[in-house]
């Protein structure tokens, strides 16, 4: 691979940032006989454009779940994630 292949060719268009508004996330674990508990509950977060953020926490605190939500691999049980004021599930790449 060439060195230029490791760099973004064009920056992502971002005016405001990512806003997480009152997000809750439950995993449906009833089929294995366990009571569902929230992985994330009432999460509010704002990440301005161009920011670098570290996500720290104990094991099973919801770090991977948050990243899965932001990558659109998961859908929140309630609440919304916004990219420049647009719900993330409506953003087209």
Summarize the structure.
The chain contains 1 helix and 4 strands.
What features would you highlight for this structure?
93 residues; mainly beta; Rossmann fold; 4-stranded antiparallel beta sheet; 1 helix; 9% helix; 31% strand; globular
Task: Walk me through what this model shows.
The chain is mostly beta strands and 93 residues long. It has a single domain, classed as P-loop containing nucleotide triphosphate hydrolases (Rossmann fold). 9% of the residues lie in helices and 31% in strands. The chain contains one helix and four strands; from the N terminus they run ββαββ. The protein has a four-stranded antiparallel beta sheet, with helices on one face. β3 (78-83) and β4 (86-87) form a beta hairpin. The radius of gyration is 16 Å and the shape is globular.
Low-confidence stretches: none
CATH level 1 name: Alpha Beta
DSSP helical segment count: 1
CATH architecture: 3-Layer(aba) Sandwich
Order of helices and strands: EEHEE
Q: Which strand order spans the largest sheet, edge to edge or round the barrel?
A: 2-1-3-4
The CATH homology group name: P-loop containing nucleotide triphosphate hydrolases
- First CA to last CA: what distance? 25 Å
CATH topology (level 3) name: Rossmann fold
Structural class: mainly beta
- Name the beta content range: 25-35%
Q: What average pLDDT do the residues reach?
A: 83
Number of strands: 4
Q: Tell me the count of domains.
A: 1
């Amino acid at each position: 691979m060439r060195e230029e292949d490791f760099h973004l060719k064009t920056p992502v268009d971002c005016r405001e940032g990512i806003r997480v508004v009152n997000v809750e996330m439950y995993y449906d674990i009833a089929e294995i006989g366990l009571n569902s508990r929230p992985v994330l509950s009432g999460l509010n977060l704002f990440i301005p454009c161009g920011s670098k953020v570290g996500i720290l926490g104990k094991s099973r605190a919801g770090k991977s779940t948050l990243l899965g939500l932001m990558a659109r691999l998961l859908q929140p049980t309630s609440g919304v994630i916004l990219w420049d004021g647009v719900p993330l599930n409506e953003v087209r790449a």
